[in-house]
Each structure stands twice: as structure tokens, then as C-alpha cells.
Amino acid sequence: MKKTAVEAAKTRASILSAARDLFCKKGIGQTTLIDIAQAAGLSRGAVYHNFRDKKALVSEIYKSLASSIYSEYEQQYRQKRTSDQRIAGFFEAWFFSLAEDEAYRAAMQLFWFSGFEAGDSSSEEISGRIYTLESWLQSECRILEQEKRLKPDTDIRQAAFQITVTFNGAAYRWFLEADKSQATAYCLTALRNSLNYNLNKPITDYPVLRLKYEGKHENS
């Protein structure tokens, strides 16, 4: 009997949930599709029917983690903030999610570093992660251009790429630093400065969330 759309979606969600839990507990390289099928209470065929291989499963989980922050942030602030505030606020929301949500932090750290673990992923997967953020930043920079908030002759693609590179470097530093309050302050300051480099009127603070740690933004 053919599955209904609801049943198919439930099966897919079960696979993703089981995979995420196992990846966090065992690591991506040490988890097999058979492990995932057993944890989800499904056959291996059911897993392969939804995902052609483990790489596709890893990619889907990473995208869902990233999009959950994007979508929640967009719904809450798109109509209330200017593009520069949305960009700054998104970065603050992302780092606060890392600091305050243990499950999210464990999963994001695993996926953030997985591309550099032999056999876990590939440079193509890392490129996909960067592209997701860079595409969003390009769309916001286009709005900034329409609002005449960018410096004259700013290359939108180059600006988005520059901020993306800064974000990736800041994220790696955050995960590696022991003092998360100082790491958060440093990362947000670096990202604010990267954003300001492209603006004709610098943003001086993060308007959406207030820094909750002892570390303070420079020049704030």
C-alpha cells in the first residue's frame, strides 16, 4: 500500500531525528545507515528510499539546523528592522543559540567541524554550508543597496562573501575558545566591523538582543 504524504513525512522526520541523535552521540563517521534505521525502527530500505547516502542525510540535517534559525529570525524581525539590523541581529541570535541551547550547540559543533574529519563529508558539503549563508547575505545586501545604506560602488557579492568569511572564522574561534562570554563578544564585534566596512553609516550596536555576558562589545 502506498504511503500517504503524512506518513511519508513522518518517516522522513523519524530518520532525521534518529540520525541527528546518533551523529551527536557517536559521531558522523562512526554512524552507519543501518544504525540509523534501527534507531528509527525502520528498514534500511526505508532510509535509502529517502536519502541516497549518508552525505545526503548529513546535508539535510545541517540545512534544517541552519534554516530553523533563519526562519524564526526572519518571521520575527523582517517587518520590524532594517537590513543592517537584521544581519547584525541574526548573528547575535545564532551565537546566543549556541551559548544557551546545549542540544543545538552539540549538533552545530558536530556539523560545523564534520567536513574536516576524514570520511565524514567533503569540500562540496562545506561549500554548500557557506553558500546558504552567503546567498541570504546577498539578498539582504541588495535591500541595503536599494535603501542606499551601502557605500558607493559596493560589490554586493564581494560584500556578502567578506561577511561570510568573517562569520566562518568567528564561529570556529567560538567553538575553540574556553571562555564563551569573551568569545561571543569578540565574534560579534568582528562581525559588526565586517558589516560596517560596507555601510555608509555604521551600525553601532546589536538592536535585537542584549549581550548577556560580562564581555562587552568594543566601542559599544
Extract low-pLDDT stretches. 115-127, 207-220
Helix coverage percent of residues? Answer: over 70%
Query: For this structure, what is the CATH homologous superfamily of the largest domain?
Result: Tetracycline Repressor, domain 2
Q: Would you give the CATH topology of the largest domain?
A: Tetracycline Repressor, domain 2
The major β-sheet equals:
none
What overall geometry do the principal axes of the alpha carbons give?
elongated
Radius of gyration: 19 Å
Helix segment tally: 9
N-to-C span? 62 Å
Average pLDDT, to the nearest integer?
A: 77
Q: What is the class of the largest domain in the CATH system? A: Mainly Alpha
What is the total tally of β strands? 0
Helix-strand makeup class: mainly alpha
Order of helices and strands: HHHHHHHHH
Q: Report strand %.
A: under 5%
Known CATH architecture of the largest domain? Orthogonal Bundle
